[in-house]
């Protein structure tokens, strides 16, 4: 080992030693300056690289937007999507490169400067201090007079001690110098070598990525050459067509548009005839406006602009007649007369008027003929069959996949009118109750507070997929069977649209006081099997789900049950009817339906109009009836909610909540498990969403210290993990074994759940560091969780990449 400063010279403290020290100190000072400069340049490079990655990501998002815009062109969309994916990979590679650069250059060299150079500086200070003390001791020793023996001995002792200390500290200083000179070579070379290896990996990854993309780019280039040739050919054809039409236009008289209008009863798009007509308004001024009219679907409609929704003039052509009008000042007028109104129209010429009149008359005859054929088909298919049920399910599937939130929710039985007043076409919903409301009733629901009703617009708000499925699982008919069970017995009539005061009293009595809930007839005594199930442990109930077969009588289910079945995820269907007698359940629902309907009709006739709105919901004997305790044979509402959550039966869960079930009730016989934990064990995402919307505590744990997030992680339910993290689940909580959800997911090697938990933890740390408390997080975090939510609700089979052994739990 080559020494920068000789230890022997250190003991001599010769001029050569001092000169060597001076040279080393200057060299170290210059080294420190160089390293500080290099670290600052590295930081600037990393910051610039991050800005480049951000700009590159924005550019890549622009390419994706262009790809989505070009969705009608498969070639362009596919190419741009592939290119944007490749650019995204390069952005990821850049991010990894900058991260490794930060670790190899910035962190490593900074550590060398802060640790090793600091030790050198401390040793230098001590050496300079003891050197000064040594000089002072030598001077003092030389100045002592020989006749002063006491002072001579004292000066000699001080000098001896000082020299001894000097030699010790000088040797340490020289050792520090030699170690620093030796170490700086390895530190600098190690950091630079790590930096270069990071670049090597970066360029290898980029080369591999574009090598895989190369064949596709080559094929795309050949395809592009063909597209250029085809484009030139199409251009010549269009120029030729343009020249032909221009020559034809020079010989044709365009004084009228008679030749351009024809009617076709069998048109493929259903439009028999369309064109511009003048329409006389029904106001006092009788103004005429030019509108685009069309005959389609046995209706006469018009619109001002193409994007406007068509306005229906005649709803059913079979009920109208058409005639000439010669008693008006304008020419070419004709009138379409229906039982409720008439519409005066004007064509641009006599030929056009005759064509419109004939088209309307032909459409009337066709409408009669089609109606007769449709009636015959309905007579042939009047008997129930599995085919009709399948077609209904297919239509529901189409609505679930492609229609708006309003259309999807309103297609549920009873949802086409307000749940409380019956007004048609409701545009609002209570998401925790699962009902649709008119705008006036929604305002009253808002005044109740979110602990009773959470109101959201079906047209203005954004709907999460799991929340939309929750709305489709319940509906007005299901909820009214529970909350209006005693309506006919009490002789109560539902308020009509516009009766604001009566509505407020009725809604408060219905949902807050729950006066119309039948506390006895709805709840049924438990069977022996149900009594046994209630005493089982969580593990026995989960194993029983595997052993109990699904009922085979699904084909006999009525429309409500068929709807619920079609909306369940594939992984939820296996155990949906495991603990239910489907046929008896349907009979009870049908009997409740008929009873409520009949009682409502009788109640409307018998209720006196002089009863005030406040006294309307206080019949005699109500207080006495409410004070009676449930018979011991009836289920505890909390236990009913607990069971129904495991069985994925949302109507029964809503029934239990209506009967006063505590949504956070814990079963002392089964490890203090809650209904939300049972919903996790049952495997239903919609059931968990329903409980959370109704106030379930996402962090309430059982006796083993495991909350819903723990159980969902153990069972590998990725969609539920995503839902709980979005609802504020504490992922740092540990169970009695000291394990948090992330450690459980890592042990189980569940990549999806590990990704979600780490993203949530990183987002939480980011918000805490930036002081963004209460904020949802950055866009990437929200996009990833939104994608997982969509996949869990619409394509759960894509998340079934992990299967947890049930005995581990």
Automatic annotation (TrEMBL):
Location, primary (coarse class): membrane
Region (Disordered): 375-395, 590-627
SUPFAM superfamilies, alphabetized: Ankyrin repeat, ArfGap/RecO-like zinc finger, BAR/IMD domain-like, PH domain-like
ANK repeat segments: 671-703, 704-736
Chain coiled-coil ranges: 117-147, 217-248
Residue span, Arf-GAP domain: 403-524
PROSITE patterns the record matches: ANK_REP_REGION, ANK_REPEAT, ARFGAP, PH_DOMAIN
Compositionally biased intervals (Polar residues): 383-392, 590-615
Keyword Metal-binding among UniProt keywords: yes
UniProt-listed InterPro entries: ACAP1/2/3-like, AH/BAR_dom_sf, Ankyrin_rpt, Ankyrin_rpt-contain_sf, ARFGAP/RecO, ArfGAP_dom, ArfGAP_dom_sf, BAR_dom
Pfam families cross-referenced by the UniProt entry: Ank_2, ArfGap, BAR_3, PH
Protein's name in the database: Arf-GAP with coiled-coil, ANK repeat and PH domain-containing protein
Organism per entry: Mesocricetus auratus (Golden hamster)
